[in-house]
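Got a spare moment? Tell me how you read both lines of this record:
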Amino acid sequence: MGGHFGNLERVRHVITYSLSPFEQKAFPKSYFTKGILNTWRRFRSQVFRVAPPFVLAYVVYTWGNEEFERLKRKNAADFENDE
């Protein structure tokens, strides 16, 4: 009743390709020349989409913490006439 895990069902009309890890180059010759420039180009093209929400979240977070600390303190004017 059934086969081993991974061979439980026959899938038809699906073709998969793979490349052996022994045939790949981990660091090709152009990695340091083209790779760093490509990373910089991709960073530069996306920074104005990603950074503003993080900056806004940081500003709201710091404002909220400062407001919480301000509201947590007692008002000294309320206790001027205490003995």
The longest helix spans residues 31-72. Residues 25-78 form a domain with the Single alpha-helices involved in coiled-coils or other helix-helix interfaces fold (CATH 1.20.5.210). DSSP finds one helix and no strands in the chain. The radius of gyration is 30 Å.
